[in-house]
Amino acid sequence: SPLVRTVLLDMLDNLGIKADQADNGGDALAMVQRADSRGLAYDFILMDWRMPGMDGIEAARRIRQNNPTATTPIFMMSAHDREMLKSAGGDMGALPFIEKPISQSTLLDAINLVLNPDARPATATADINLSAAPDLSDCRLLLVEDNGINRQVALGFLKDTGASVDIAENGR
């Protein structure tokens, strides 16, 4: 969803990581192909498993088919169980997995683990200053989202803010 992508882009920006975004698997595939053809391959890819049209597993499979020698890590993000992902992914089931809702520290640890496999998790080091969740304890928010998984992810992001959140499943 756009909200989840915005939050992830903000998290990456807070970590000093410049990121591009795609709205779906087909767009992601095209962006990876364009970047590869220019010699500007991505350092890693964050892919949602459950997307309309082409899901994350199929998009990852096609990225690998188009460039079988590429070693770009593809992280599969999902609120669903890792074992479900492995069985659904078949040959792609060994992709690095990040469980939703994603916190900035979880994201940093996952990226660090794949890009620097010999390093300890960044959250264990004293010199990394991760920004805390904003204090929204004086705020009352209305979350309108028709997808239950997206609602769960958004609530996960908002949990540590202290905001009072009302939920609506549709515009009515």
Descriptive overview:
The protein is α/β, with parallel strands linked by helices. The chain is built from six helices and five strands, in the order H-H-E-H-E-H-E-H-E-H-E. The strands form two sheets. It has a three-stranded parallel sheet, sandwiched between helices. Helix 3 (56-66) links the parallel strand 1 and strand 2 (74-78). Helix 2 (25-37) runs parallel beside helix 3 (56-66). The radius of gyration is 17 Å and the shape is globular. The two termini are 19 Å apart.
Task: Set down the secondary structure blueprint.
Blueprint: H1 2-14, H2 25-37, E1 45-48, H3 56-66, E2 74-78, H4 82-89, E3 97-99, H5 104-115, E4 140-144, H6 148-159, E5 164-168
Parallel strand pairs: 1-2, 2-3, 4-5
Structural Rg: 17 Å
The total of helices stands at: 6
- Compute the average pLDDT: 79
- N- and C-termini, Cα separation: 19 Å
Q: Assembly type of the shown chains?
A: single chain
Task: Give the low-confidence spans.
Answer: 122-131
Strand order of the largest sheet: 1-2-3
Number of strands: 5
Estimated share of beta-strand residues: 5-15%
Shape: globular
What is the structural class? Answer: alpha/beta
| Helical content class | 40-55%
SSE arrangement, N to C? HHEHEHEHEHE
Largest sheet: 3 strands, parallel
Summarize, please.
This protein has helices at 2-14, 25-37, 56-66, 82-89, 104-115, 148-159; strands at 45-48, 74-78, 97-99, 140-144, 164-168.
